[in-house]
Amino acid sequence: MSVELSPGNVSMAQLEALFRSGSHFRVSVGAMRGVEAAVGRLEAAVAKGEALYGVNTGFGKLASVRIPDADLATLQRNIVLSHSAGFGKPMPANVVRLVIALKCISLGRGASAVRPLVIERLQQMVASDVIPVVPEKGSVGASGDLAPLAHVAAVLIGEGEAFYKGVRMPAGRAMQEAGIDPVVLQAKEGLALLNGTQVSTAFALVGLFDAWQLSINSLVTTALSIDAAMGSSTPFRDEIHTSRGHRGQVDAARIVRGMLAGSEIRESHRGDDLRVQDPYCLRCAPQVVGACLDQLRHAGEVLRIEANAVTDNPLVLSDGEVVSGGNFHAEPVGLAADAIALAVSEVGSISQRRIALLVDPSLSFGLPAFLSANPGLQSGLMIAEVTSAAIMSENRALANPRTVDSTPTSANQEDHVSMACHAGRRLLEMNENLSAIIGIEAMSAAQGIEYRAPLQTSDALRQVIGRIRDVSPRLDQDRQVDGDIASMATLCASAPLAPEIEGATIGEAMA
Q1: What's the whole-model pTM score?
Q2: Cβ distance 228 to 455 under 8 Å?
């Protein structure tokens, strides 16, 4: 299946589908006509003999060096090779595919003056499963994601390394086996491929996709924990939340309220609750997770705009002028990624407090210590809770902002940078940690609800417990639970725990 992308109008749902499904894509025909027109405008500007940055001059601090016309193609090849200076393990293939899609969207806006052939070859690479080997480190998020994007461009010209059908090999061989002719770059094309925020944006988008789904899943585990602890559903009444008015809070309360509807456990203590108010980790979940949803939704709008943006330099404008600007500076992406990190940390923090509540007999309203069938002889989920605390602490440290850590580069020509690339990249680790925390909460809450038998939870939550038990059996005797935690983390990260919830993906929520 191939997804048609209309540069400037690509939706969040399309971007998420490209990432999760691995679909092929094509830039719309209408956009390609604009791309062709921009090439003509650039050729006219070059013919005038003016100095054009990166077209007939050097780069960065070397912008004052004029390049002879005979060397313009060599200049573009040289920038790709010299800037392929990344470090670290290869970026995940699905992230690289998203990077290439974002680059094609940006080039498809018609201000970069690359030939349609360049976009077509990039699309062909993805369709043929030729995925560049892109080291994950090396970008400071200004002047574009130069090093990682250079590794993408290198494969396009037959240099560097690529994975072909999952096998790592020299790029020239991969292109040959896929039947793709490498591109000989023309004026500005190398610079246009390297200059841009597509790697930073791809990492931030992937972080957003997973953070949203995990946040929604955390509301499901919140409902499980409330029933396990015999908490009250009263704090989730709609009028409480609409009287405040925050969309995320209203949505979060609706989800929890819906998951608890029809619970025998809840009805068994309605009207004679011994606790006037539940602890904040239960009662204030809509206020906390809802605020995180609002934060994520705002970050999503920033990233949707950036995904559709022209972010290289210089730009060939509609009047034919070739103008240097600064759209390559990824500050919007870095700030969005930092906001996502705060939300991920907070969702994990309140989830961890619910785990701690459930294993503590002084707080869990009658559940056995550590949810063990025989406390003392057995430790139950004692150390699973400790693991959740350790992971929560890691995420708190990882949530420290990255955009404040600017450092000058390129002989002080590029004297303020965004650090957006690793602001986005660290979200992958944070979401992995969050999936484990939510997974441990799900294990704990399911165990707690089962101790409430013969009282039953709601139909919706019984279905969730069924999914949990498919990968993590009830803990009747002490056993190693590292495998359970890993399986639960995968379950929480890979799919909605309650598929019937509206807006379970950020693409749906922003539609």
Answers
A1: 0.96
A2: no
